């Protein structure tokens, strides 16, 4: 297969304006490519279908694997210094703990994490503090008022969080200001990669084009699929290595006084329960008085296997289906709040939703040409840990396109088959299908009634 050698006139079509797609557009533009078009099925950016469309995301370089730690440290540097990204980064620090109930898988993972990050040559000296007891945890993070039963772990001051949706919006605004074309909603909703069996006789195979829901055909020299968890709906062959998996998110409302008291709270990640963040402004609907603490539950993730797609797991096609969370996750979130911030543990959880990622069996990203197509690139397999890489991820996609091959073996297209149930060593709990859970949401029934 002859792959296109890119020139500055090479045309690029990016399908998906989420975390990876926007980052790719930004890096292409930074390197002087002028012919870039981006599609997204969402009516606005960030899209309702993007895993990045969230209040905040953890930005940390604490990986067992020094390869990802190095990249994440580069990403943190970009979050701290880049004019587009830095307004959306808060270096509050990162508390990593286990609770009294944690299985040994969790405690040994934390031991490997701290060994890896504290010995990394680019991690600032004195940034890691060991916290072997609940009182040591409380001493380091006095915002925590709960019993912290059996909590032990460490604190990393060279980490924090990103305001996720505002960061996506900022990059989108930057790309618009640079004249990059976006098609959103039906005109950006990719429904087929051509040529398919029906259209092969009209198109010179094996070049790839995209058909959108408004029946337009989009041609480009290089088509980058950055469709996240939704990828296998468009490219079924990707379903053998990408499994759509969801995790639950909820929020607790706090008032301005409570938010002020919790200002500077580090990201609290209790690896067997869940994680929570410093309160953030609720946005337009809440005005200045309303703030939200985002809370997430840990677990092995939920699949949504679809018979009509050969039992591949895919997110529901309507975003409204995501506005409810499994009751077991709500229970975990409340346990985390009881242990860490009990004054909020009985408040209603608001803005509940499940968020879909594209998981790989080994948690490695996939950035490679798709076999059997010319000029079709898959940029995904985020495995639930790509938002922190938002400032730099697109650079890897452009490197691969310029090199016309993926030099990094771990990011190559994987032909092997994954059932999505593999034991992931940094996660706790098994994988369940979301249809087997009982879910609770603010407006799932109402949303369904409107469909
Ligand atoms: C609960 C939860 C918490 C997380 N926390 C963190 C964290 O703390 N730190 C971290 O680093 N990462 C975190 N992540 C992971 C992070 O959000 C993802 O890794 C990242 O957002 C994936 O980016 P993406 O571009 O692959 O997918 P997305 O951001 O989902 O983007 C995919 C885009 O493709 C569009 N699309 C889909 N299908 C089509 C189509 N057919 N045509 C056109 N457009 C289409 C969608 O609308 C969407 O905009 C978390 C994920 C979850 C679920």
From TrEMBL:
Keyword Flavoprotein: yes
Region described as Disordered: spans on this chain: 118-137
UniProt keyword list: FAD, Flavoprotein, Oxidoreductase
All residue ranges annotated as the FAD dependent oxidoreductase domain in the record: 13-400
Signal peptide (from-to): none
Feature: compositional bias, Low complexity: 118-135
Cofactor: FAD
Pfam family, one: DAO
Transmembrane segments: none
GO molecular function: flavin adenine dinucleotide binding; saccharopine oxidase activity; sarcosine oxidase activity
SUPFAM superfamilies in alphabetical order: FAD/NAD(P)-binding domain
Alphabetized PANTHER family for the sequence: L-SACCHAROPINE OXIDASE, PEROXISOMAL SARCOSINE OXIDASE
Family: Belongs to the MSOX/MTOX family.
Name of the protein this chain belongs to: Sarcosine oxidase
Organism: Melanomma pulvis-pyrius CBS 109.77
């Amino acid at each position: 297969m002859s792959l296109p050698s890119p020139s500055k006139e090479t045309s690029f079509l990016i399908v998906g304006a989420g975390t990876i797609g926007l980052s790719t557009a930004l890096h292409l533009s930074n390197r002087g490519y002028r012919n870039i078009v981006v599609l997204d099925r969402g009516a606005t950016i960030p899209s309702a279908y993007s895993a990045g469309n969230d209040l905040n995301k953890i930005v940390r370089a604490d990986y067992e694997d020094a390869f990802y730690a190095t990249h994440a440290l580069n990403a943190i540097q970009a979050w701290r210094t880049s004019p587009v990204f830095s307004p959306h980064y808060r270096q509050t620090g990162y508390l990593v703990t286990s609770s009294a109930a944690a299985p040994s898988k969790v405690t040994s993972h934390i031991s490997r994490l701290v060994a890896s990050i504290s010995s990394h040559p680019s991690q600032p000296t004195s940034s890691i503090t060991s916290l072997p007891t609940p009182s040591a945890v409380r001493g380091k993070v006095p915002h925590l008022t709960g019993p912290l039963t059996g909590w032990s772990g460490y604190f990393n001051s060279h980490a924090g969080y990103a305001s996720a949706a505002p960061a996506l919006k900022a990059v989108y605004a930057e790309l618009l200001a640079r004249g990059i074309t976006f098609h959103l909603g039906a005109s950006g909703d990719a429904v087929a990669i051509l040529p398919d069996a029906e259209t092969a006789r009209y198109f010179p195979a094996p070049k790839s084009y995209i058909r959108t829901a408004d029946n337009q055909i989009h041609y480009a020299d290089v088509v980058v699929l950055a469709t996240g968890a939704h990828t296998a709906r468009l490219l079924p062959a990707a379903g053998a290595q990408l499994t759509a998996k969801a995790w639950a998110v909820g929020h607790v409302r706090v008032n301005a006084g409570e938010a002020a008291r919790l200002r500077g709270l580090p990201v609290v990640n209790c690896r067997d329960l869940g994680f929570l963040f410093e309160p953030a402004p609720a946005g337009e609907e809440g005005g200045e008085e309303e703030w939200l603490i985002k809370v997430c539950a840990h677990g092995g993730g939920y699949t949504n296997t679809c018979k009509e797609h050969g039992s591949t797991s895919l997110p529901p096609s309507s975003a409204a289906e995501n506005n409810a969370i499994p009751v077991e996750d709500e229970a975990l979130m409340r346990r985390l709040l009881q242990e860490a911030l009990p004054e909020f543990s009985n408040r209603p959880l608001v803005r509940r939703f499940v968020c879909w990622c594209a998981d790989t069996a080994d948690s490695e990203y996939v950035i490679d040409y798709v076999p059997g197509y010319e000029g079709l690139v898959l940029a995904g397999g985020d495995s639930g840990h790509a938002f922190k890489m938002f400032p730099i991820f697109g650079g890897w996609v452009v490197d691969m396109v310029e090199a016309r091959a993926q030099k990094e073996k771990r990011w190559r297209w994987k032909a092997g088959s994954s059932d999505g149930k593999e034991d992931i060593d940094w996660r706790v709990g098994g994988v369940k299908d979301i249809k087997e859970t009982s879910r609770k949401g603010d407006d799932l029934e109402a949303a369904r009634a409107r469909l």
